[in-house]
Amino acid sequence: MNGFLRIGMMALLVLTSGSLSMGAEGDSEKNRIKPYAENPHYWQYKGKPVLLLGGSVEDNLFQIPDLVPHLELLASVGGNYVRNTMSSRDPGNVQPFAKVEGKYDLERLNPEYWRRFETFLAETAKRDIIVQIEVWATFDYYRELWAGGPFNPRNNVNYTVEASRLPVEVNSHPVRAQNDFFRSVPGAKDLKVVRKHQERFVSEILAHSLRYDHVLYCMDNETAVGPEWGAYWATFIRQSAAKQGKQVEVTEMWDPWDIRHPKHQATIDHPETYTFIDVSQNNHQKGQAHYDNPQWLRARIKDHPRPINSIKIYGADGGRFGNSRDGIERFWRNIFGGLAAVRFHRPDSGIGLSEKAQRMIRSARTVTDAFDLFACEPRNDLLSDRQPNEAYCLANASGECVVYFPAEGQVAVKPIKQAGGWQARWFNIDAGAWSAARTVAGQTVALQTPGKGQWAAVVKPQ
Fold it and tell me: Which ranges constitute the DSSP H helices of 244-354?
C-alpha cells in the first residue's frame, strides 16, 4: 500500500471511530458547513442548502485593517464566501510566532497574529460568511518571503540548517517545488525536527477554527509537491477535529491549469481523504473549455459526488489572466456549470469586491433565488441551435430551466418535464433588472436575448 493510500485509510478509520463516539448528532454537526444531504454537489449550512458567492480585496483577509466594513459590504450585496490564506506577506502583517533577541521562537506564539485570526473568524460567523482557509500559503515559503520567514533555519532559535535539512535560500518559483519544507512528512523526507513545529502551527489554527462551524480547509495554494504532503495535513486536520467529536471538510489546490492533469487526481480520486474539490486553476481557461472541464469532473466523481469550489476567479483589466469580462463570464459559467462556491480573486488578478463584482454577486443571488437551484444540474443537452459559449442551462425535474447568455444569443430549450404552458422571464444581469413575464406554449421555448450584454432566462411551468 503506498503512502498516500495508507494515510487516507488511517484517516478513514479514525474519523469513523470519532463519528461513532459522538452518538446523537449535536448542534454543531447539524449547523456546520457540509455537503448538502439531498444534492452533495452543493453545500448546506445551518441545515439549509446554500450557494457560496464571494469577492474580496485581499487573500489573507484576517490581516487587513478594515476587515469589518469589508465584510459588511460583501454581505450587503449577497456575498457569503471568502478566502483566507494564513499568510504574512504584506506591509503591516504580523507573523504567527514571537521573536526573542531578533530571532523567531517557534515555541512562542505572537498574540497579535492569533487575535487577528480570532476576530476574523468571529466577524465572519456573525454574518454567515463561509471561510475557506488555505493552511500553507505556498508563495510565503519561497524567494524573499522565505528569506525572512520564521520557518527558515536562519531566522529561528529552534533548529539549525544541519538539524532541519532546510535551505536558507530558495530563489526558484514555487512551481519547481525546491523547498524541502514541503517534504517534512512521512512518505517524503520525514523531517521530524521541522514537522513538530509545523504541527504546532496547524494545531493553533485549529484551536481557534474548530470552535466555529463555518470553516472549510484547503491545504495549500497552487501546490506542485507530491501528494503525501497534502494528504498528511488533510488527515491531521480531520483527526484533530474527530478527537473533539467534529467533522470538517478539506481539499487541496494543485498548480496545473488543466484540471485533467494527473496531479489533480490525488484530490479527485480520493474522497476518503478530500471531501470537496477546488478547481480555481481552471479559471485560466476561457469560453467553452472553461465550462467543459468541470463537466468532465462532475462525470468523474459521479459515484462520490462532492462540492466543487472555485475560490479564485481570474480576470481583471490590465491583469495577466484575461480582462474583467473574462472574469465575469467565468463567474457565471461556474455557477451554471453546477459549482458550489465561486469567488472573484483579489484585485490585480481578479475584480475583487469592486463595483463590478458587487453587481455580479447581487445579480447572481437574484437569479439563483428565483428557482430551485439545489435540485438542478447542468443540462446543456436540453438546448438546441446552440453555438459554443453561446448559452448554458441549469434544469431540474420539476420542469424549471434557467439559461445564461454571456452575450447576445438565440437558442431553444426543452424542459425535462412537460407542462401545459411556460412562464419565461428575462433578467438583465448587467443592469440587475427583471423584464415582465410572458407565457409560452409548446414543448420547447424559444429564447432570444432582448438586447446586448449578459442575460439569464428563467423558464417555469405554469
Answer: 262-268, 287-300, 324-336
